[in-house]
Amino acid sequence: MTKTLLPLTQSIDTRLSQIEDQEAFDLVVIGSGGAGFSAALNATIDGARVLLVERMAHVGGTTALSASTSWVPGTKRGLAVNPEDTPERVATFLNNAVGDRSDPKLRQVFIDNGPLAIAKLEDHTALQFQVRPLHPDYLSELEGSVLKGRAIEPQPFDGKLLGPNLPLVLNPIPEFTVLGGMMVDRDDIFHLMRLTETWQSFSYSVRIIVRHFLDKLLHPRSTRLVMGNAMIARMLYSYIERKGLLVTQTEVTQLIQNGNAIEGVVLQQPLPNGEKTQRTIHSRGGVVMASGGFNRHPTRRAAMLPRSNASWCPVGHGNSGSAQDLALKAGGQLGTGGLSHAFWAPVSIRRRADGTTAAFPHFVMDRGKPGMIAVDGQGLRYLNESTSYHLFALAMQTHDRNVPSVPTWLVCDASALKRYGLGMIRPGGKGLKPFLTDG
Predict the structure, then answer these.
(1) Where would I find the H helices in 337-401?
(2) Strands, E, within 231-356: which ranges?
(3) Distance between CA 265 and CA 246 in Å, rounded?
(4) Cβ atoms < 10 Å from Cβ of 271
(5) What is the rounded distance in angstroms from the CA atom of residue 39 to the CA atom of residue 126?
(6) Rounded-to-5 percentages of helix, strand, coil across the chain
(7) What is the pLDDT of residues 78-109, one digit of tens each?
(8) Minimal CA–CA distance to 316: which of 68, 70, 59, 127?
(9) Over the stretch 226-276, which tens digit does the pLDDT of each residue have?
(10) Strand 357-361 to strand 347-351: parallel, antiparallel, or no bridges (unpaired)?
């Protein structure tokens, strides 16, 4: 989309009562993360009348809390960075990485259509991506891997364009921000760490810091959005602009089934007086289930992830798995073939001032950097610190069967701590006292 974006002036109505009972839509989408919004936006681009249902008060789910980097080979922006990449090379990489754990025909559909899906969103919505000049495939030792061009991430977004709808976007993880709520991406971190070293970094840093403090004076939250917040805000902007309907704080209580087809949903939304609005909604094009994982499911997590603690999980709080229960009851099945039932990352935890638990994912900023090693409960190094965060956490659990390694300890020297930080400890070497007090 090349047109100039104008600020929205009207708040979208998120009440279920705006919809008539027994009303019909072309498509109903459950969940307002990146997957749900993508499905909803694609349908609106094709002219469909869409209802997007979110059970929480804010949109975005785990996507809004994440870096929102997507692995989609062959995009126009990716090929501009790495013109030598080919679909055949991508297929070779996926064959080596996944093997017989998924259908090769489905992988080929992804290779063929992934770039088209991204182009469709970029051409018709406010969602715009960028590609880093260096972002290796995680399994870079495999044949077919590349060092750049396949990972795409959302461009920063001016939240003021959402107007009164900005508060709908779920706030980022506080520990992923600085200066009391300023979101930062890797460009920002690069310049902030060099603030006193170059004029370019100084001017860049001053510009985003001044904007942040002006935001704190004039707005309920920071308006310079990056990473996952930028993706969700861009999608929300276009969904509102395209006249999509959205209901929040709305639970799916039933899937309307006709044989093997799902033809609608029953929705409930609580009212301030304790009563509930209920609507039966019909969908001519079925129901897209994009409601997230089962991280906070009361029984499924215990059964499928018995050795993990839900408080260590930094994902969206709406991931209760309740919609999965409905899908399974209707004949759906959970996928098989993955290395695990979850997508993992090592995290460090700390008690916040308000009593809640902060879980900080160790993605790329610290554990794989020079001067840092990871050791088990016996003080022995047992893995490659720079492996992908998913494989890192799987290795922790595998090793823990024989030697205590949950938790694993990240050990660093003073110079590494000052240069890279360590989890919630910021680079620069300052502000250590509260962490030392914690022990």
Answers:
(1) 389-399
(2) 245-247, 251-258, 261-270, 276-283, 287-289, 347-351
(3) 15
(4) 12
(5) 15
(6) 35, 20, 45
(7) 999 999 999 999 999 999 999 999 999 999 99
(8) 59
(9) 999 999 999 999 999 999 999 999 999 999 999 999 999 999 999 999 999
(10) antiparallel
**What are the CB-based long-range contacts (under 8 Å, 24+) for 342-346?**
342/293, 342/295, 342/304, 342/305, 342/308, 343/390, 344/389, 344/390, 344/392, 344/393, 344/394, 345/389, 345/390, 345/392, 345/393, 346/389, 346/392, 346/393, 346/396, 346/408
Cα radius of gyration rounded to whole Å, the chain:
23
Residue ranges per domain, the chain? 73-149, 182-220, 347-438
User: Which residue has 């694609």 as its token pair?
Assistant: 42
Q: Within 10 Å of residue 116's Cβ, how many Cβ atoms?
A: 11
Helix ranges restricted to H, 66-185: 76-81, 87-98, 104-124
Residue 178 identity (one-letter amino acid)? V
What is the number of helices (H) and of strands (E) in the chain? 13, 19
Task: Locate 194 and state its tokens.
Answer: 């060099």
Q: Find out whether 27 and 262 touch, Cβ atoms under 8 Å.
A: no
Rounded Cα distance, 180 and 429, in Å:
18
Tell me whether strands 129-130 and 151-154 are parallel, antiparallel or unpaired: antiparallel
